[in-house]
Write a structure and sequence with these properties.
The structure is a single chain. This protein is α/β, with parallel strands linked by helices. It folds into two domains: 172 residues, Glutaredoxin (3-Layer(aba) Sandwich); 137 residues, no CATH class. 50% of the residues lie in helices and 9% in strands. The chain is built from 13 helices and six strands. A six-stranded mixed sheet has the order 1-6-5-3-4-2, sandwiched between helices. The N and C termini lie far apart (59 Å).
């Protein structure tokens, strides 16, 4: 395999709605040998080879544990780095990826896939060159980059990746994941479980209805409020094809006071990890406009605050900007 220069592919929530783009189901997991450890558990090891004493944040991906790792991606993002001994950049990329992953305190794990030993992994991700990095969130692939990459480049992509994960309800940590088999998890409230089941089935309208009913019964239910904002964002993005998204961006550039265009591009920005761009776009619209459209934009901005997380520092900054244009 050849080894091109660094080519990032920005993570986007719309990619998570693709079906069949990469056939992750092509690898059927055979029975795991008894000595195989479960993914992302055990004693951690730092990039310099020292034992950290915590859960391992780097796993060697194989055909046997691949489906386990895909399943794990429903709780935390899994960053696959596909590498080969024949690609000289592989070692540096793996080391850089491990340093970055470990700096996030268990919010994602690194899966190192040796494509020489396990060529089916390369086939599953349709890899054309190594090293290649592909994240998986809720079983769906998010291409990140090909070729060499340093810590700063990887960190920038991981920041975007975690925002995509949050927008899709994947906000766990390795501690949560490693304890998943230690006992029965606390059951979700019935309406929350109904919403999760609907999301799993791709029924965003059903999930929204469940969250709305939860809010009718408990108006202070912050989890339902955040969940509703997330599924409504996912529903809007699902309806946009890539050409339509590009046309929407062009329309928004031509018509800065076109409400639907500005809100649509803000959705794309937030889902792709460009949080401040999305917030600032709506705030600028509010500052230029009055009447019903201004209120519609304000309500959408508050919904996007819920998607990102109301305690996020970027939300706090955007609230200040909103206050300045409103008052």
């Amino acid at each position: 395999m050849s080894s091109p220069g660094y080519r990032p592919t920005p993570a986007a929530a719309s990619q998570l709605n693709l079906r069949g783009a990469v056939d992750l189901s092509s690898l059927r997991r055979p029975p795991a040998p008894p000595q195989s450890p479960p993914p992302a558990t055990g004693t951690g090891q730092t990039a310099d080879g020292q034992q950290s004493g915590g859960p391992s944040l780097r796993v060697d991906a194989t055909e046997s544990n691949f489906q386990d790792l895909v399943q794990l991606s429903g709780q935390i993002p899994v960053l696959f780095v596909l590498w080969s001994t024949y690609a000289v950049e592989s070692s540096g990329v793996l080391d850089a990826a491990q340093r970055v992953v470990e700096s996030y305190g268990g919010r994602l794990v690194l899966a190192a896939a040796d494509v020489d030993s396990f060529p089916q992994l390369a086939q599953a991700f349709q890899v054309q060159a190594v090293p290649t990095a592909v994240a998986v969130i809720k079983g769906q692939p998010v291409p990140l980059f090909q070729g060499p990459a340093d810590d700063a480049q990887i960190r920038g992509l991981v920041d975007e990746l975690l925002q995509v994960a949050a927008a899709n309800g994947v906000t766990g940590s390795i501690g949560d994941a490693s304890q998943a088999g230690d006992g029965e998890p606390a059951p979700l409230p019935p309406l929350h479980q109904a919403a999760i089941d609907a999301i799993e089935a791709g029924d965003y309208a059903g999930a929204a209805a469940a969250y709305k009913q939860a809010l009718l019964e408990q108006p202070a239910d912050s989890d339902a409020k955040a969940g509703l904002a997330q599924v409504e964002l996912m529903s809007r993005l699902e309806k946009l094809s890539a050409p339509e998204a590009e046309s929407l961006r062009e329309l928004a550039a031509r018509e800065p006071d076109n409400l639907e265009a500005q809100l649509g591009v803000a959705d794309l920005d937030v889902s792709g990890g460009h949080i401040e761009d999305g917030f600032n776009r709506i705030i600028a619209f509010i500052g230029r406009n009055f009447g019903p459209e201004r209120e519609t934009a304000r309500v959408r901005l508050l919904e996007l605050f819920e998607v990102v997380g109301t305690t996020d520092e970027r939300v706090a900054k955007a609230r200040q900007g909103l206050a300045r244009v409103l008052f």
